From TrEMBL:
It comes from the Bacteria. This is Iron-sulfur cluster assembly accessory protein. Residues 8-104 form the Core domain. GO terms for biological process: iron-sulfur cluster assembly. It comes from Litoreibacter albidus.
Amino acid sequence: MELTLPPKVTDRAFERLAEIGASQQGQALRVAVDGGGCSGFQYDIKLDAPADDDLVLTKDGETVVVDAVSLPFLANAVIDFSEELIGARFVIENPNATSSCGCGTSFSM
């Protein structure tokens, strides 16, 4: 039986949250999974206030939260921040996804 671990957040993602001042605004990075998108599921990533039933991941005062419904879809995933010529964004490396769309915001399991 494979051990299911909560998602991991990279130092780069926490550093970006500090750069934009998320905690100073009382906000956390919320990572959720919703039905939809071109592959069946899609990521919803936004700044939001933490809720009582969220999984809370913190480092250096910055916070990332995942709601209980999304948690099984993000088990063992890595939440990172990517900065490329085409833009900068938070990205998810999800080992549970069997396929994903070209933009990386939609996936199937």
